[in-house]
TrEMBL record:
InterPro entries, A to Z: Anti-sigma_ant, STAS_dom, STAS_dom_sf
NCBIfam families: ant_ant_sig (TIGR00377)
Cross-referenced Pfam families: STAS
SUPFAM superfamilies per the UniProt record, alphabetical: SpoIIaa-like (SSF52091)
Gene3D superfamilies: STAS domain
Protein name: Anti-sigma factor antagonist
Origin organism lineage: Bacteria, Pseudomonadati, Thermodesulfobacteriota, Syntrophia, Syntrophales
Domain of life the protein comes from: Bacteria
Family: Belongs to the anti-sigma-factor antagonist family.
MF (Gene Ontology): anti-sigma factor antagonist activity
Domain STAS: 20-129
Source organism (scientific name): Syntrophus gentianae
Amino acid sequence: MTHSCIATAIFSSFVVPVPGMVVRNRMPGYFIATLNGRLDGITHADCEEAIAPILVPSTKAILFDMTDLDYISSMGLRVILKTRKYIEKEGGSFHMINLQPQIEKIFEIANMLHGMKLFASVKEADDYFDAMQKKYSSVS
């Protein structure tokens, strides 16, 4: 069983080493979390630790890019569900892109895709984030 190598999660002014995960701030309040390797009983705590700093009321959207995620366990599903519940409770939006077929199937089996917008690419998500940014900017 091989787990992914150390990646870096970057938030505005500090860096947190996290196995298999990179978090980028696309624009104020909009984040992309890129997962790779496995999200399981061994890596879920590191993932939660990386996500924790952006689970704040000012976060408007979190996008999980799962292009390189090969495996997810029930503990990984828990991290995703916990993140989604928090962000939606705060009025933000949660999305996923580039799910591998086996990962998408697990989400379908767990009935976790209901009401969630999936994006085909980072560009499609960026376009959505741009539109959301304009929407929130015009409301202020």
